[in-house]
């Protein structure tokens, strides 16, 4: 499947090189394989297949990461 096929089937549109968030991790769209979008996550050398319905576009400056990637800061007692 191509990115065009994924757009037609799932109604989501991504272009190669677009910045995205998937599972709370930032990455770049590298292409498509089968019915998945391949994402090259920051800090990784290879791309990973991701469900197109779990991938969201990343608007620089408005990043909202999942709770598992943020830390709970407490003031010292």
Overview of this protein structure:
The protein contains one helix and five strands. The protein has 77 residues and is mostly beta strands. The chain has a single domain (3-59), classed as Roll (SH3 type barrels). Strands 4-3-2-1-5 form a five-stranded antiparallel beta sheet, with no helix packed on it. Strand 1 (19-22) and strand 2 (25-33) form a beta hairpin. The radius of gyration is 15 Å and the shape is globular. The N and C termini lie far apart (56 Å).
How would you summarize what this structure contains?
The chain is mainly beta. Helix content is 10%, strand content 32%. It has a five-stranded antiparallel β-sheet with strand order 4-3-2-1-5, with no helix packed on it.
Mean pLDDT: 83
Strand order of the largest sheet: 4-3-2-1-5
Our count of helices gives: 1
The number of distinct structural domains comes to: 1
What structural class do the secondary elements suggest?
mainly beta
Over the alpha carbons, how many angstroms does the gyration radius reach? 15 Å
Q: How helical, in percent, are the residues?
A: 10-25%
Bulk shape: globular
For the secondary structure, the number of strands is 5
Give the terminus-to-terminus CA distance: 56 Å
**Class, according to the CATH hierarchy?**
Mainly Beta
**Strand portion:** 25-35%
CATH topology: SH3 type barrels
Return the CATH architecture.
Roll
Largest beta-sheet characterization: 5 strands, antiparallel
**Element order: H for helix, E for strand:** HEEEEE
- Poorly predicted runs: 66-75
């Amino acid at each position: 499947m191509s990115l065009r096929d994924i757009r037609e089937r799932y109604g989501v549109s991504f272009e190669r090189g677009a910045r995205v968030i998937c599972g709370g991790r930032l990455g770049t769209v590298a292409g498509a394989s089968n019915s998945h979008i391949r994402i090259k996550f920051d800090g990784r050398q290879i791309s990973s297949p991701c469900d197109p319905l779990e991938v969201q576009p990343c608007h620089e400056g408005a990043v909202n990461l999942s709770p598992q990637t943020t830390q709970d800061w407490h003031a010292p007692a």
